[in-house]
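> example.struct
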């Protein structure tokens, strides 16, 4: 029969190596989970703010001046367009003010929406989210971009 070789008896040996591996692995797992949760929330908020800005711009672009329609060249009523866009934002819970607002340049309505998202797991507190949407009055049906 074969003889057993003696085990090395270094002071401390490999004692505790499994614990250190588990601690490092658990920390990495928590960090990756935080990236998934907060990253997904950030992407969803970006999509929400972008859709909100585009929709508010379209709502503002529908404020066509009645006087301009009778002349045959539809144009925006700037005050009504801003009011319609801000009304849409207010109905969605993001009222105009504090970086969120609408502006009119000719037949183009531009809406900027600024918001913040509170991070749950990643360090850093709150991250700003911003989006800009543009819509304009299209005169007739054309292949060219109306704005």
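> example.seq
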């Amino acid at each position: 029969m074969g003889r057993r070789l003696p085990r090395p008896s270094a002071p401390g040996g490999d004692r505790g190596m499994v614990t250190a591996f588990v601690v490092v692995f658990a920390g990495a797992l928590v960090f990756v989970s935080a990236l998934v949760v907060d990253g997904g929330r950030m992407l969803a908020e970006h999509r929400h703010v972008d859709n909100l800005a585009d929709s508010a711009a379209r709502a503002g672009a529908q404020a066509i001046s009645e006087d301009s329609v009778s002349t045959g060249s539809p144009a925006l009523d700037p005050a009504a367009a801003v009011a319609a866009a801000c009304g849409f934002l207010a109905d969605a819970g993001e009222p105009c003010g504090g970086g969120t607002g609408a502006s009119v340049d000719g037949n183009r309505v531009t809406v900027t929406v600024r918001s913040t998202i509170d991070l749950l797991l990643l360090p850093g507190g709150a991250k700003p989210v911003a989006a800009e949407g543009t819509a304009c009055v299209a005169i007739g049906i054309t292949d060219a971009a109306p704005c």
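> remarks
The chain has one domain: 18-136.
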